[in-house]
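Take a sample.
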Amino acid sequence: MARKKRQEEGGSLDSLLDTMTNVVGILVIVLIVTQLNVAEALKRIQSNLPQVTQEDVDQMKMVVDENRKSMAKLETTWTEVEPEKDVEKKQLDQLILEIEEKTVNNKEVVDKTSDLDDLKKKIKELQVKVDLEVADVTKADEELQTLKAMMDETPDREVLAPKIVHLPDPRPAPEGAEPRYVLCKGNKAYVVGDVYEHLFKVRDFIEDNFDKLVYRGPGMGSYTYTIPSIKKNDRGGADPVRDREERAFQKFRYDAKKLQDFFEKGKYGGNDLWYQVSRANPDSDYAVLKIACKPEGGQGVAAFKQRNSPLDLALKKVQGERNYVMFFVAPDSFDAYLEARQMAEFYNLPAGWQPWTTEEFTPSTRVPRETTTIELDDVPVAGYEAIARVVTPIVEQNRTEADNKLKTVTDPEAKPLAQAWVQKFASYESAVVSAPKVAASIRGTHQVLMNPNAPYLPHIRVFKPEGAIPTKKPAPAPPKPDTPKKEPVKPKRDTLD
């Protein structure tokens, strides 16, 4: 029985030896695989990284040396390890932990190396910004020093004593008298005189350049407009309503942009003034005249006080017409105004004034004219015929498009509005065709209505598109609040002082 027990004990030691040998082999394989993985990872990381500094290389060498020492220590440990399983596992866990810590440290070194180029790029960008800001500050400082030097060299401004002016008591302008304008700007006097002389002069400039300024483009709108003629009645006067002739004169409309460009260079207006023509407002077909003062024009105080100067002749003319003088005074020209006003007082002329702060003078009148004459022999009949040949197909096409659009209108309340809108094209087409015929048949000097009045140019209209055909009933206008009935307002009269 004792011999059998020894055999069982010997078999038990063989199993333990096999188990320990397997564990040691597995651990050795794990260590080898781990070392290989670490080496392969390092090679892969190094292949993807840019060149590192010598300091980084030395640090990596130290890490490798430590790993090698760890491997040597591990091999020594396993050769001397006791056969207890728990002790061996603890030592293995400790070695794995050390390897992981060193792997993390290696990764931080790699990350820092990869961020090096980005940091260098950012430093360069910041340096460029700093250089630009330093340049701006240097430039601003130089300008500041220049301004300070200029201020040091600039003499102190002399404060003039206030000028006390005694003006006559205000009184209304004489009944039926018309203003004659004088502009005071740049401490000089610019004689405007009768605004209608300028309006008719500009109108004639435009008519003389009909071919250059007439509207020829497409558009939903009227290409002509009417100037109604009138005839004198038995009393020698004219009644714009009852005495209108049966046939009115048709004229073609002008191009607003061409008109503005034609006058923008100061070509017309003489040596002193500059005419400017433009559309009165975006929704209007009237052309408005504005007058600007040329800086090189006008007469200074010494010049206009001379005998038979432009201002002196203008005041004499006003005296003969029994009209009055109206001064428009810019803030820099009160000295010139006071001297010119003394000249008006010398001729015993009623005079008034008002401040003027705009760049242009808009001519107007307190006494509008109802009628004037127009010379129809100067109308370019050949030009009218050429425009009619160009415009007629456009009007016909617009009318066809409007007819087609009318068929799509389904709103019963908008239908009458659309029909009335389309019917206008029939009159447009008829007027375009008949305008050259009327121009050829009506010749000579005719008396016509003065429509519109200053500051609008008489007998000049610009092309204004009509917009789109109405397809819906327009929204009702908001109700107006109840207001007391006002008495008719009489035309204002200038107050003279």
